[in-house]
């Protein structure tokens, strides 16, 4: 059981349901509509739509809040684990369990503090109650913890077959992404209770962590299954240039830091890099040569006849917009940038049961936004 913050009784606080009427958003496929659902959030990191029309939103500083369908924002919910809220660390992803309607279980990822300033990506599940979280259980810890502030990852994705995938960052320790005895720079697959599946690719291999699904990842902040095919898609930050989309396969090596399209922020080459390709390492499915700063991702599928059907949406932090990629099967056939004029870092994007997209902006005055797709 992780350490918890002091209990605070959540109560609705004033928050506008909207900031004025919905406004038009220009799109190549027709007019979309954007509405501010709530504002005044402190660096929100993730949003999970709830069946009742409300939302759970994480704030990087360590708060989990409910946002009502009317835009009301709760006080911080009790029972959230303590976080190392420095650099890029804090309370990160939130996701509903596949059986949430029955279990009320949610999943949280966060930077867990250790001794002497060390920290690592961890994951916990808990039951969502009226007054906060109950029975919090930490089921995964990235090991070893390190003294660094950045590159935690992390997102959840559920495959519908009893497994949860958790994306990781390399924690700025580049070589560890290639070291199978460490969990930095890895995508891991676990059962929903945190146990390791017997058919994970490195189970039983000496010197390798059995949790690992794939490796050679830099800082993966987007993760989702394509509802059409069941394939897992992952996005990760390159250094200066070279943000990637990958379709991770079990046991495969995705190259970082040996293979990259980017360079160091100083303008110098990555010391370990040999180029953009290397035998035995998987090429990226798609590369952004100029880094958008890819974060949350969501598929918009199952809406035949709608202009945005079969699209993949990606939040962009550095370029402060929303990316729409048109898909033909797995192929990316067109790219469109939306919400330029918003001028805010889009940290997460999710598809709601109502067919609308929900976004959070990573700002001091962070917003929860509703984007209604063009209707054709």
Automatic annotation (TrEMBL):
Superkingdom: Bacteria
Domain Glucose/Sorbosone dehydrogenase residues, every copy: 41-370
Gene3D superfamilies per UniProt: TolB, C-terminal domain (2.120.10.30)
InterPro entries (alphabetical): 6-blade_b-propeller_TolB-like, Glc/Sorbosone_DH, Quinoprot_gluc/sorb_DH_b-prop
Region of interest called Disordered, as start-end residue ranges on this chain: 1-28
Composition bias type Low complexity, residue spans: 10-22
Protein name: Oxidoreductase
Organism expressing this protein natively: Pseudoxanthomonas suwonensis
């Amino acid at each position: 059981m992780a350490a918890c913050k002091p209990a605070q009784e959540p109560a609705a606080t004033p928050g506008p349901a909207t900031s004025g009427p919905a406004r038009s958003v220009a799109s190549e496929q027709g007019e979309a509509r954007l509405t501010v659902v709530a504002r005044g959030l402190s660096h929100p990191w993730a949003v999970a739509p709830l069946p009742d029309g409300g939302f759970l939103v994480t704030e990087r500083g360590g708060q989990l809040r409910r946002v009502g369908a009317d835009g009301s924002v709760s006080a911080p919910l009790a029972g959230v684990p303590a976080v190392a809220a420095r650099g890029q660390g804090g309370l990160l992803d939130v996701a509903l369990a596949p059986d949430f309607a029955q279990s009320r279980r949610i999943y949280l990822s966060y930077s867990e503090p250790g001794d002497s300033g060390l920290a690592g990506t961890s994951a916990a599940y808990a039951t969502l109650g009226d007054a906060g979280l109950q029975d919090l259980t930490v089921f995964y810890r990235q090991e070893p913890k390190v003294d660094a502030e950045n590159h935690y990852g992390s997102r959840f994705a559920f495959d519908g077959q009893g497994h949860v995938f958790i994306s990781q960052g390399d924690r700025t320790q580049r070589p560890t992404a290639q070291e199978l005895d460490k969990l930095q720079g890895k995508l891991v697959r676990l059962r929903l209770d945190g146990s390791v599946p017997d058919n994970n690719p490195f189970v039983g291999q000496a010197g390798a962590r059995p949790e690992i699904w794939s490796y050679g990842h830099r800082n993966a902040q987007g993760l989702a299954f394509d509802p059409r095919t069941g394939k897992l898609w992952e996005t990760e930050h390159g250094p200066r240039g070279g943000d990637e989309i990958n379709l991770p396969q079990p046991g495969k090596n995705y190259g970082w830091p040996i293979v990259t399209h980017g360079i160091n922020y100083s303008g110098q080459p990555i010391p370990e890099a040999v180029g953009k390709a290397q035998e035995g390492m998987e090429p990226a499915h798609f590369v952004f040569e100029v880094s958008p700063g890819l974060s949350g991702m969501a598929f918009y599928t199952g809406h035949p006849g709608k202009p945005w059907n079969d699209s993949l949406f990606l939040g962009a932090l550095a370029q402060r917009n929303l990316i729409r990629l048109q898909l033909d099967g797995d192929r990316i056939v067109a790219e469109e940038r939306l919400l330029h004029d918003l001028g805010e870092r889009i940290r997460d994007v999710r598809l709601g049961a109502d067919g609308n997209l929900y976004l959070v902006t990573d700002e001091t005055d962070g917003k929860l936004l509703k984007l209604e797709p063009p209707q054709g």
